[in-house]
User: Fold this.
Amino acid sequence: SVALPLMGDPAIGHYLKRRRVRVTSNDILQTDWNRSLYSIQNNTESLSEQDIDGLLLDVYVPGNKLKASVLLNWFSETDAWWFDNLRGNIARLESPFKRAAAVSVAVMVGNYVHSFTEETREFRQPLSGVFRRLCSTLPKPINNHQDNACHQKAPDDFIAESTVDLMFLRLPHP
Assistant:
C-alpha cells in the first residue's frame, strides 16, 4: 500500500493501481481531489455516451440568473452560462465518480478557453464539442481489487493518520 499526501497529478496513483497496489491519496485542492477520486478511488465507473449527452443538454441556454455569477470574472457571458449549466447537470449525476470525471473534464475545458487570446479566439471550437473530445481522453478506470481512498485533509493530518507500507512525498517547488 502507498500513501500520497500531496497528490497533484493522479498519474502516479493510476500507475500504481495497474501494479495492484492499494493507493491512498490526499490533495487539498478540489480540482486535483476530483481527478484523484476518478482515477484512484474509482475502480469501475466511467462516463457513458448517455451521461455525456445529459451533461451537455441545454448547456448553451441562458436562464434567468447565473447560479455562479463569479464565472463572469473569468469567462465571457456565453461561456459563463455554459459552465453554469454544466455545473447544474453535473450535480444531477448519481455517481460521485462520474461527477468527479465530469468536473475534471470541465476544468480541462476551462483551461482550453483560457488558452486563447483575442487574436486567436476565432480558432476556438464550441465548448460542447471540446467537452466530448476531452471525455474521450480520460483514462479508463483500473480495477486493482483494492480499497483505494482519496482524502482532502491537511497534509500533516493525512500523514499522521496513514498506515501504509510506503509513503511517497513529492514536495512542491519553491
